[in-house]
Amino acid sequence: MPYDHNSDLPDNVRSNLPAHGQEIYRKAFNSAWDQYKQPEDRQGDADREETAHKVAWSAVKNEYHKQGDKWVKDES
């Protein structure tokens, strides 16, 4: 189930990530949702949604890190 808007994201994503991080998450999730449609494209017995969430968090971690209980943008 791809997300059309950041406001559609799960509560734990919206309440923890800043707007830009949510945008990264949403786009990565939607891309992974399409990319890992077929079970043979996923690792192990992970379902499509689980895989897409893992990819999305990984994408966020490319630009943000957790500092205490907040996600902050990495300094370039």
Describe this structure in words.
- The chain contains 3 helices and 2 strands.
- It has a single domain (18-73), classed as Rna Polymerase Sigma Factor, Chain: A.
- The protein is 49% helix and 11% strand.
- By secondary structure, it is mainly alpha-helical.
- It has a two-stranded antiparallel sheet with strand order 1-2.
- The protein has helices at 11-16, 19-35, 48-61; strands at residues 64-67, 70-73.
- The protein is globular and about 35 Å long.
- The termini are far apart.
- Helix 2 (19-35) packs across helix 3.
- The model has no long low-confidence stretch (mean pLDDT 93).
What's this entry about, in short?
The chain has 76 residues and is mainly alpha-helical. The chain has helices spanning 11-16, 19-35, 48-61; strands spanning 64-67, 70-73. Helices cover 49% and strands 11% of the residues.
